[in-house]
Predict the 3D structure of the following.
Amino acid sequence: MWWACKHSVGAGHVRPAASRRRSVMGKLRAHIECAPTDYVSDKGRKLHAGRPPPTKNVGADSISARARLRQGKLPRAHIECAPTESFDKTQQRGVRLKKHLFRIIAVLSAAVLLAGCAASRLRLGAAAAGGVYNAFGTAMAAQNSTIEVKQTAGSAANLRLLAGGYLQLAVAQSDMAQDAYDGSGVFAHESTERSFSAVAALYEEAVQVVVRADSGITTLEELQGCTLSVGEEESGTEQNAWQVLAACGLNNRLVHTVNLNYTDAAARLADGTIDAMFVTAGLHADALEQLAETCAIRLLSVDGGVGARLLAAYPAYRACVIPAGTYAGQGEDVWTVSVQALLLASNALSDETVQRLTARYFDSVDAVAAAVPVPLVTDPAVAAAQSVIPYHTGAAAYYTAQGITPAGPETGASPEQEAAA
């Protein structure tokens, strides 16, 4: 790199050319500080153009010397320049690189710390705020600080997020959990098979079919030609609704269906926009209790031949009763089918982690039950009685230590567990 002069070169009397060159060179060595200017080739041609960096106290003589240097009138090979007080470009790049490296190290250190914190947390998938799943998750997290509740769209979303590794724990309907575990139904073309296992059965979710009391509809078959809410799209309720309709010979050509959440469906049923609504939830569902206070309702039975076909076709279903008085104006028991809400754990979790989680859950299950608006299973023997998917080996270790043999798809529940359930 060639250098441009920063201080003036004094003008002298006329001397021979060689003497003048020696004089100029001596002054350059003794008094001149230099700043970088354009890069030049060996023959003085610019390799690239560019304005020289700003310099201070550049006199006419120094400019003249620089011009003479470029014209080849000063011997480049013998010019030596003292370093300037400012950093040259290489030094400046080095300083910037060091600062950049320090920033990267700081960011990576923070990321490692956050990853360590995140690794100790267990994300639990629940449904939207206001639902039983969310109430359960919030209550469980209040008793276990390692749990972080995540709001989701419900069972199907929870199962996909659990299989995908975003969630470590989830609540889901047993029938949908079975489909996801087996890779069937709505999960037939997804990678959810055998990526999770059960921790505990939580409570019963009844399939509830509701019409207005003044509608004149008293049986499922009389829904032909009606407009029905079958729950939100890809929800457990939607799946149950279509299974019930198919079991009584109704399809989408014989009924008109809409996808509504429970609150909107109750409002449409009250104003007569729809004729019936399906709800798969624990008894005393908030939406139905509020509807029954403002509009007389009737629950349709899912029993007889329809119930028998459902129980034969879908192992996750169980017969259940909605006791008289569950909702305002309900004067008699209503038989239907139900599924179970299950607490699930990713198979990526270690046995020790899940065993500790299960033990901690049952140590505080009474406090959790007090915060949930449905009858929660508090007996470990009943919680170990579901048989649609296997139990996580960590959860099974907890039950075994309590003298309980957990059920499973191959063994089923014991007579004692069936009786307790």
User: Anything to note?
Assistant: DSSP finds 15 helices and twelve strands in the chain.
